[in-house]
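User: Teach me something about this protein's shape.
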Amino acid sequence: MSVKVSRCQGVRKKSVIRDWAESIIVAFILAMIIRTFFVQAFKIPTGSMWPTLQAGDIILVNKFIYGAKIPFLDLRLPGLREPKRGDVIVFIYPQNPKKYFIKRLVALPGESLEIKNGTLYINDKPLLEPIFSCRYYYNRGEFAKEDDKVIVPQDSYFVLGDNSASSQDSRYWGFVPYKNILGKALLIYWPPQRIRIIK
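Assistant: First, the predicted structure itself:
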């Protein structure tokens, strides 16, 4: 009788372990699908986007809005819309594919951009929206010289940090190809006192 009981207990233990293993595997697969195609968390390493984002903020990035990249293929899923001016985007740094950057998109494909007296000019017209006009932009780097106008290539974007005095952005290294864009910054979810939608 005791042998039968111990065998039953062994079967139950194996069943519980198997159930736990299956649950963990399913949860892992679901997490990877969500991370790859829908939402991914990123930690902000510097103050280049201050005051919008601070070093140490952890944000969620919407990856399906522009169409998520398919791993190991140079393809994207269909997106909800194209990137637009003012979006805060996360992208693969063009000069080092192992790094991710976060900046604000300011100029679209085919547009001209110039920085004059701290103001951004797109196609010779100043950007007057508050997210741009309340900031001072410095003429620094190869792509933002004083009295110099740059034209954004097709399928590329010009991005700047909100903290123009301390940001390595398109002024220094050029344009962000569309294929490098991972998604739109959605919200700060950590630390708790900083929880907010990113605008």
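Now, about its shape. The helical segments are 2-37, 130-133, 170-173. Residues 39-197 form a domain with the Umud Fragment, subunit A fold (CATH 2.10.109.10). If you'd like, I can walk through any region in more detail.
User: That's plenty for now, thanks!
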